[in-house]
Amino acid sequence: MKALIAMSGGVDSSAAAVLMHDAGWDCLGVTMKLYQNEEIGLTRAHTCCSLDDVEDARAVAFRLGMPYYVFNFGGQFRQKVMLPFVQSYQQGRTPNPCIDCNRYLKFDALFQRARELRCDAVVTGHYARTRWDQPERAITPGQAVVLYDGDVVLGGGTIQ
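Below the sequence we write its predicted structure tokens.
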């Protein structure tokens, strides 16, 4: 079985890569390139989706002996995430660009690439469907929350 591992360079996706590799999957690591820091006015090297993150992901893939690719989704990111974000923000809303990035890039464009590469699964370190026998309560101050009704985002915020 072949798995495409979406690697952000962080601990979560790196751990997912190790787990899949150790479970015997034929893995290939990928990172979505969404923008150049300079394009969005950032001068710091280590920010979300930065070159440092790409190099961290590449190093993990290399250690695991996995092929590694960077997919340039910059144009799609600008059209489907950033421009709608700016328009919404200008209208007085408080949009969450990560939701649209997941919807249009991670769970659409990335899945399409996985199909083209004949992968049986797409693995990230960020999303899981879990079930417990007993209800669990583990509210953490500072944790982000997004509430859905099906595919409709009802709202979100940060736990105080």
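Strands lie at 2-6, 26-33, 68-72, 121-123, 144-149, 152-158.
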